[in-house]
């Protein structure tokens, strides 16, 4: 026996809505990748390696290449770390895409956070695959102390992770208050 047409149309509409939501957040991740890669292109064409260009008293543009992870973790490991971070980036990206698929309708904070982290991960993944290292150029400093140089992708990952933590934290607090 076939199902009524209205049930089939409802299922199709629900699937179309889910696809539209997913595409919206994947587009945000894509915008992050485009902004990241565009900024990195400008940095590599306009800056000289390790030569700071002062923008503000606490902000330089300084072109560097990082073969490690955040804070140059494993940067001097001899090359194998490139493939470790490529693999981790692919796994994390797949998990984020899967997570985005299940985001409830009307939710905004969670998918924005996931899309920012996804876009940042893909931006840095591109660098690792294409160049063997991540291009960094944002150099914040104060009285001779420099924060590790970073890029747009790193910024998106950081903002996305903070939004994710506050979103999940709010959900956890809400659940514990209901108990």
From TrEMBL:
Alphabetical list of Pfam families matching this protein: Peptidase_A8
InterPro entries membership: Peptidase_A8
GO molecular function: aspartic-type endopeptidase activity
Taxonomic superkingdom: Bacteria
Keywords, comma-separated and alphabetical: Aspartyl protease, Cell membrane, Hydrolase, Membrane, Protease, Transmembrane, Transmembrane helix
Entry EC number(s): 3.4.23.36
Catalytic activity: Release of signal peptides from bacterial membrane prolipoproteins. Hydrolyzes -Xaa-Yaa-Zaa-|-(S,diacylglyceryl)Cys-, in which Xaa is hydrophobic (preferably Leu), and Yaa (Ala or Ser) and Zaa (Gly or Ala) have small, neutral side chains
Listed transmembrane segments: 23-43, 55-74, 80-101, 108-126
Topological relation to the membrane, as annotated: Multi-pass membrane protein
Pathway per the UniProt entry: Protein modification; lipoprotein biosynthesis (signal peptide cleavage)
GO biological process, one term: proteolysis
Active site residues according to the UniProt entry: 136, 154
Similarity-based family: Belongs to the peptidase A8 family.
Protein name: Lipoprotein signal peptidase
Organism phylogeny: Bacteria, Pseudomonadati, Pseudomonadota, Gammaproteobacteria, Candidatus Kentrum
């Amino acid at each position: 026996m076939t199902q009524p047409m209205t049930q089939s149309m409802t299922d199709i509409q629900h699937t179309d809505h889910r696809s539209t939501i997913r595409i919206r957040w994947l587009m945000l991740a894509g915008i992050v990748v485009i902004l990241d890669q565009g900024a990195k292109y400008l940095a590599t064409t306009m800056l000289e390696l390790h030569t700071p260009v002062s923008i503000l008293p606490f902000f330089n543009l300084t072109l560097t290449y990082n073969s490690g992870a955040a804070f140059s973790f494993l940067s001097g490991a001899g090359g194998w770390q490139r493939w470790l971070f490529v693999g981790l980036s692919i796994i994390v990206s797949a998990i984020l895409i899967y997570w985005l698929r299940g985001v409830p309708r009307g939710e905004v904070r969670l998918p924005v956070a996931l899309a920012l982290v996804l876009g940042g991960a893909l931006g840095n993944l591109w660098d690792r695959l294409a160049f063997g290292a991540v291009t960094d150029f944002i150099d914040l400093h104060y009285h001779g102390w420099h924060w590790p140089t970073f890029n747009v992708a790193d910024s998106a990952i950081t903002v996305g992770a903070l939004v994710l933590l506050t979103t999940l934290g709010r959900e956890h607090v809400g659940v514990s208050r209901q108990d």
